[in-house]
Amino acid sequence: APGGGTSNALTFTVNNPTHIVLSPQAAMITVGQTQTYTVEAFDDAYHSLGDVTMSSTFTITSAAGGAWISNAYTSAKSGVWTITATYGTLTDTATLTVIPHVVYLPMVSR
Q: Exposed, middle or buried: residue 74 (CB in 10 Å: 0-12, 13-18, 19+)?
């Protein structure tokens, strides 16, 4: 080192994500309700690299209809649908069951 001192080198290890986990893995809502999802990235040793939800994209089976606002899906049709989260080249899937909205009518006595 200049001036006769010693120098110390710092080494940083950057863990690249090798898989992601979409949560929740299974959920059930009623038509018209909203389900929110999160995504966490992990390295090959299963160490968490943190929440990557806002850097991920989300899709649902096209027949489901509905709408995404960021990581929140508002359902349109009943059925069992596959949610896919994508972060870079990594993907994970989850199942969303959407049940019909049931209207209960009051009993009328005669």
A: middle
d(CA 57, CA 39) in angstroms, rounded, equals: 10
pLDDT band at 11 (very low <50, low <70, confident <90, very high): low
Residues sharing a CB contact under 8 Å with residue 1, sequence separation 6 or more, in sequence order: 7
pTM of the model: 0.80
C-alpha–C-alpha distance, residues 57 and 35, integer Å: 15
Dist. CA 58–CA 110, nearest whole Å? 52
